[in-house]
Amino acid sequence: MKTQVLHDASGFEQLQAEWNALLERSPLRTVFLTWEWQATWWKHLGEGELHLLTLREDDGTLVGVAPLCRVTSPAGLHTFRWVGCVDVSDYLDVVAAPGYETVLYMAILDYLTGPDAPAWRYVDLCNIREASPTHQSIVRMAQERGLYARASVQEVCPVIPLPATWEEYLDSLDKKQRHEIRRKMRRIESAADTHWRITDDPATLDEDIEAFIRLHRKSNPDKDAFMDEKMVAFFRDVCRTFFQRGWLSLAFIFVNGNRAASMLNFDYDNRILVYNSGYDPEQYAALSPGIVLLSYCIRHAIETRREQFDFLRGDEEYKFRFGAVRTTVHNVLVSPEPLEP
Q1: How confident is the model at residue 341 (pLDDT cuts 50, 70, 90)?
Q2: What is the pLDDT confidence band of residue 197, given thresholds at 50, 70 and 90?
Q3: Distance between CA atoms of 289 and 246, rounded to whole angstroms?
Q4: What 3-state class would DSSP assign to 174?
Q5: CA–CA dist 101, 59 (Å, integer)
Q6: Is the pTM of this model over 0.90?
Q7: I want to staple 255 with a disulfide (CB 3.0 to 4.6 A). Which of 34, 112, 171, 260 is the partner?
Q8: Distance from C-alpha of 248 to C-alpha of 262, rounded to nearest angstrom
């Protein structure tokens, strides 16, 4: 096995032709580990030093990538993180061919404890899915090396396992929620000229992206503050790139000709991932356009035979009313010094 660490953005370019082919083989695949997401995140939001650790067979075949970076706090504290941590990437991990996960974990720890690694106080790895072996294996292997390490539940990620039909889905909900969905869909459809669509025309893509950003900013003050110019540039770039790859599912509901709500979803690996949303609280709030649009998106996911409707991070109650079940993401913290409780 050969390990190499790439330290600047050209490393993404070197790996572009191989990255997604490796990811597609990986049981840990997610849209947030695609080359497109990782490279775009680093371009717009990356900070500190890049440490793209690669693992290859002796014949040169790429079998593992650990996308890491080292950030430094104002107090001079050095921490290794995943590329993509924390706020905008819901699932993160290594990219490994099946059966190579343990070898890749070992290569990460060999590098971090070896002579070529820069100084660090923490390895702080966020958003590792509960089904991944990473959070348990790295902790165990780090402790075997005399390091201090622990894993903890970071956040809840509610997920709807999708049935075969819309009626079967509705029947799985409690009576009150089933009634509310049907009532709100009938009310908006009878009270106003209502239609919805998912962006599928390159000619309207830029207009739709800007409309989503406006609705996102209008939703509440926190979302307005979040969507600063750096984040706007990131969202524009991701949406355009994902549209080209067929991974963008940008939905709008129109009420009397006006965009009343929007959902920015990703369509990847036969799953719909609910990434963000926006709505106009000043118009049509009484018609619940956001809830209706969510219902339309779930119905469309069922009709197109998707396996899951994933709400991503956040345990808001409405997600469970829509039939989601609880899954979790985990955090791994490693240090050469004792960890605080």
Answers
A1: confident
A2: very high
A3: 26
A4: coil
A5: 19
A6: yes
A7: 260
A8: 13
